[in-house]
Amino acid sequence: MVWFVVAVLLLVLLILAIIFLNKFYRKATREVALIRTGAGGQRVVLDGGCISMPFLHKVSEVNMKTTRLEIERQGAKSMITRDRLRVDATAEFYVRVQPTPEGVATAAQALAGKSFRASELAETLEGKLVDALLAVAARYSMDELQDKRGEYAGEVSEMLEDNLAKNGLVLESVSMTRIDQTPFNVLDENNAFNALGMRRLAEIIAVNKKERAAIESDAEVSVRQSYLDATKRKLIIEQEEEQASIDQQRHIETTRATSQAEVAEQQAAAELRREQ
Question: Which helix (H) or strand (E) is 250 found in, with range?
Fold first, then answer.
């Protein structure tokens, strides 16, 4: 009888424990870390779990997955290069929370629940990301941005590394998905930066048009010269063919005349012999 009572009590305790853990035990995953505050102080859980009691603890979730943040700069907000030209650009930043207790705690404090919402995270970090894009773009010319876009993205990444670490974030990579010259029609001519850039761009376009016209003119002259040379060669060949035909006809006539003269001479000689 006693053993039965003990068994029943143990079973009840086991059921209560299961119910308790099911309700108050929080588990971390590879994609979500936990940070518990309240009684017992702050605790960060990257692997495993923790007990969260009502009124005593508060558990926050932190997204550990990589998040893509897209920044566009175009039109009046486009980037200004070293040669004072404006460039439309689109950049993608791939960030995630540092997988350390310190990184998770910092991200939870600085970002709260924004780590799960890319739009809100981008809004929070936009100032830092845009500042890095503009600061590094000022060191490059427009042509260099296109030709050295990998080097440019690397410098942006280096500039952001410490700033993002203050938010508990790690920058995995930066990708420049679009770089193009800002169209004239969206620029304000009364803006000093725009005025310098537009003048510079107008000079570049004028020089390119002049060079293109010269190349096209040279190409046309070259084509016509080639056509003239071909025509001359054709006429020379025709002339040589005609001369060869004339020489052949002359040779035939000369040969015929010689042959006729020989025949006439032989006939005359034969008649002379008959008369004798």
Answer: helix 192-275
SS3 annotation, 39-66? CCCCEEECCCEEECCCCCEEEEEEECCC
Amino acid at 120: E
Phi-psi region of 259 (alpha: psi -120 to 50; beta: other; left: phi over 0): alpha
For each of the chain's 276 residues, which pLDDT tens digit applies? 677 667 767 776 777 667 655 676 777 788 888 887 777 777 777 787 777 778 787 877 888 888 899 999 888 888 888 888 888 999 999 999 888 888 888 888 888 766 667 788 888 889 999 999 999 999 998 889 888 988 999 999 999 998 898 888 999 999 999 998 888 776 666 665 655 666 776 777 777 788 787 888 888 888 888 888 888 999 899 888 888 888 888 888 888 888 887 777 777 777 777 766
Neighbours of 28 (CB within 10 A): 21
* Domain positions in the chain: 22-62, 67-187
Tell me which fold the domain 67-187 belongs to.
Answer: Tetrahydropterin Synthase; Chain A (3.30.479)
Three-class SS state of 29: coil
